[in-house]
Design goal:
The protein is of the alpha+beta class and 148 residues long. The chain has 2 domains: 13-95, F0F1 ATP synthase delta/epsilon subunit, N-terminal (ATP Synthase, domain 1, Sandwich); 97-146, Up-down Bundle (Single alpha-helices involved in coiled-coils or other helix-helix interfaces). Helix content is 30%, strand content 41%. Strand 7 and strand 8 form a beta hairpin.
């Protein structure tokens, strides 16, 4: 991505999380951890430039002492020394996830997986379970943070 020439505050990174539907996050942050397909990676201001693919996983970023969590389902991360752009197929902020609905989705996906079926059906059920568990984990992090 091209450098826009925008001045980034010292010690900060601009994080932008974009889905096909909208710009979900555009904030100056202190640190980012993301789910790369080759493993999780962390980014601090001044990081070297790289481009990587993302898997289903948790995106975590920090602004001051405040921790923020998101679920990310596939996509790409473009990292520069001053900006991280996450282009995700699907992404949700923790505060946008309904915990009860996420828990129900986990139970439903576990049932589908237990039933088995054709290899393609089993794989679809496995991916559904992985997505549901991620959403549940991210939503529960926010609940725990609120009660800490």
């Amino acid at each position: 991505m091209a450098d826009t020439g925008t001045t980034v505050p010292s010690g900060k990174l601009l994080l932008e999380v974009v889905t096909p539907d909208k710009l979900l996050v555009s904030e100056y942050v202190d640190q980012i951890s993301a789910p790369g397909t080759e493993g999780d990676f962390g980014v601090l201001p001044g990081h070297c430039h790289f481009l990587t693919t993302l898997r289903i996983g948790e995106l975590h970023y920090r602004i001051g002492e405040a921790e923020h969590y998101m679920s990310v389902l596939w996509g790409f991360a473009d990292v520069t020394p001053h900006k991280v752009t996450i282009l995700a197929e699907i992404a949700e902020k923790a505060e946008d996830i309904d915990v009860e609905r996420a828990q129900a989705s986990v139970a439903q996906a576990e049932e589908r997986l237990e039933r088995g079926g054709l290899p393609s059906e089993v794989e679809e059920a496995r991916v559904s379970l992985e997505k549901a568990r991620l959403r549940q984990k991210v939503a529960e992090r926010l609940q725990k943070q609120g009660h800490a």
